[in-house]
Amino acid sequence: MANLYLVATPIGNLEDLTFRAKNILAEVDFVLAEDTRVTKKLLDHYKISTKTLTWHQHSSEHDWQKIKNIFETGANIALVTDAGTPGVSDPGGQLVAKVAEELPTVKIIPIPGASSLTAIMSIAGIALDDFLFLGFLPHKKGRQTLLTEIKESKRPVIFFESVHRILKALESLADCEKKLIVGRELTKNFETIYRGFARDILAILQQDKSQLKGEFVIIVDNYRPRGDRPVGGVI
């Protein structure tokens, strides 16, 4: 019986790969990667020689058929993202859906580990028993509407933002009287955690453009005690 392993990889510091993940990556027949060049650096660091194939948001039906044929030979495959946990704001979920639907005998196994989502939550210092996760915000269509919903939410909201749009996101939240926890370059050499109102963090980044590097993880602290929140609904 073939297995599909969803393997979490480091989000920065390569030492964050778990022992189990290292063993799986070395033992499987193939590693599916968003960018094989990125994954090769990780594999080389741990002296793992497993062959890599590509699976990303632009993968075609032809690509899927190739992977499907490999599974049908009984081979085991590990799926990784460039950084973090597959399926969280990346195309890993699409592959899992195809395997579950078309190859029901293939066992789908999570290999948990690093995630920027849980990393920022762990150091937030706020109640996160209930929160809304939005992944990366859309670049254009629906972006402003979503930012308005974030400000009006009765639950803490967590989302990702790229270096190219972090200033615009903070500008949109500048009139919001809710504290933010913002993580930059988590687990890397220049890891920085910002705490305060959006306008204050915006001022810091505008004054020191050298801090505009990497990806950002943002928590908007909209917390209210559970008894004060409406039942059901997203917002």
Characterise this structure.
With 235 residues, the protein is of the alpha/beta class. It folds into two domains: 3-111, 3-Layer(aba) Sandwich (Cobalt-precorrin-4 Transmethylase, domain 1); 116-228, Tetrapyrrole methylase, C-terminal domain (Methyltransferase, Cobalt-precorrin-4 Transmethylase, Domain 2), CATH 3.30.950. The protein contains eight helices and ten strands. The protein has helices spanning 19-27, 36-45, 61-72, 92-102, 116-122, 143-152, 166-172, 198-207; strands at residues 3-7, 30-33, 51-54, 77-79, 107-111, 132-136, 157-161, 180-184, 192-196, 216-220. The strands form two sheets. The chain has a five-stranded parallel β-sheet with strand order 3-2-4-1-5, sandwiched between helices. The longest helix is centred in the first third of the chain and has 12 residues, at 61-72. The termini are far apart.
Short description:
With 235 residues, this protein is of the alpha/beta class.
Topology of this protein?
Elements: E1 3-7, H1 19-27, E2 30-33, H2 36-45, E3 51-54, H3 61-72, E4 77-79, H4 92-102, E5 107-111, H5 116-122, E6 132-136, H6 143-152, E7 157-161, H7 166-172, E8 180-184, E9 192-196, H8 198-207, E10 216-220
Parallel strand pairs: 1-4, 1-5, 2-3, 2-4, 6-7
Antiparallel strand pairs: 7-10, 8-9, 8-10
